[in-house]
Amino acid sequence: MKPHINRFQANKEYFFVEGCYINELSNQPEDPELSIAQARVEPGVITQWHKLRDTIERYVILEGNASVEIGDQAAQKVNPGDVVIIPANTRQRITNTGTKDLIFLALCTPRFEADNYQSI
């Protein structure tokens, strides 16, 4: 891998099946150990239950307020600055409980691959 900068490109955002918008900030085969995506969830939206096979995911909440459900735990409120750690193969979903878009980073190790996404 060579040193480089991935410039943010707002027009690269796409709608993902779980119910949110994703912008892949860094997800390349040359960097298999980590991917970084920006997720955006509109007000009132609850993402679908899902899990990532063999992939640990971390949410870094940047903007907005939400309620997150992980595994069998009760829903917990999260706010900007909070980090949610989701073990591999663990069901999860997030609800935007605010009036503005919820924005968070999703960091996956190893990097996110669509084949590892499993709807529940």
Topology:
Blueprint: E1 14-16, E2 20-26, E3 35-41, E4 50-52, E5 56-63, E6 66-70, E7 76-78, E8 83-86, E9 92-96, E10 102-109, E11 117-119
Antiparallel strand pairs: 1-2, 2-3, 3-10, 4-11, 5-8, 5-10, 6-7, 6-9
Describe the structure.
With 120 residues, the chain is mostly beta strands. The chain is 0% helix and 47% strand. The chain is built from no helices and eleven strands. It has strands at 14-16, 20-26, 35-41, 50-52, 56-63, 66-70, 76-78, 83-86, 92-96, 102-109, 117-119. The strands form three sheets. Strands 1-2-3-10-5-8 form a six-stranded antiparallel β-sheet, with no helix packed on it. A three-stranded antiparallel β-sheet has the order 7-6-9, with no helix packed on it. A hairpin with a 3-residue loop joins strand 1 (14-16) and strand 2 (20-26).
Keywords:
single chain; 120 residues; mainly beta; 6-stranded antiparallel beta sheet; 3-stranded antiparallel beta sheet
Task: Explain briefly what this protein structure is.
This protein is an all-beta fold. It is built from no helices and 11 strands. The termini are far apart.
Spatial order of strands in the largest sheet: 1-2-3-10-5-8
Give the mean pLDDT. Answer: 97
- Kindly provide the radius of gyration, computed on alpha-carbon positions and rounded to a whole number of angstroms: 14 Å
Q: Identify the quaternary structure here.
A: single chain
Helix content: under 10%
Number of helices in the DSSP assignment: 0
Shape by Cα distribution? globular
